[in-house]
Design goal:
This protein is mainly α and about 120 residues long. The protein has one domain. It is built from 5 helices and 2 strands. The protein has helices spanning about 1-25, 30-35, 50-60, 60-75, 80-95; strands spanning about 100-105, 105-110. A two-stranded antiparallel sheet has the order 1-2. A hairpin with a 2-residue loop joins β1 (about 100-105) and β2. α1 (about 1-25) runs antiparallel to α5 (about 80-95) and α4 packs antiparallel against α5 (about 80-95). It is globular.
């Protein structure tokens, strides 16, 4: 049951980010181009599993997405808001599909399931 709730939570965040993105009229082409760029953080696994997990997890936390949105709002910088919303949508999509934060034991070990 908890896993289902986490998947639903991810879907809710994805939908919210898509809605806010659309309401503000940001570029959907940019959204599509940048949607999977947070996954480039997995390249850090090339150095070491522990470093890879840290880098991947920092990029894939809602805290960073919310911080970007807040900074963009506070300083009136739309491209930072856009980046935060795209990151939030990416993370929500990941969680909805069962991809979670990584453990240092390996890329396939996540807080949601073994991938």
């Amino acid at each position: 049951m908890n896993r289902i709730l986490l998947h639903l939570e991810g879907a809710a965040i994805l939908i919210l980010c898509l809605y806010v993105y659309g309401v503000h009229g940001y570029s959907w082409l940019l959204f599509i181009i940048l949607l999977f760029t947070p996954d480039l953080s997995m390249l850090a696994y090339g150095w070491d599993k522990r470093i890879g997990a840290i880098v991947y997890n920092v990029v894939h936390t809602f805290t960073l997405a919310v911080l970007l949105c807040l900074l963009g709002i506070i300083f009136s910088i739309p491209w930072i808001i856009t980046a935060g919303l795209i990151l939030g949508a990416h993370i929500g999509m990941d969680r909805m599909c069962g991809f979670g934060l990584k453990y240092p034991s390996g890329f396939q070990d996540t807080h949601l399931q073994r991938v």
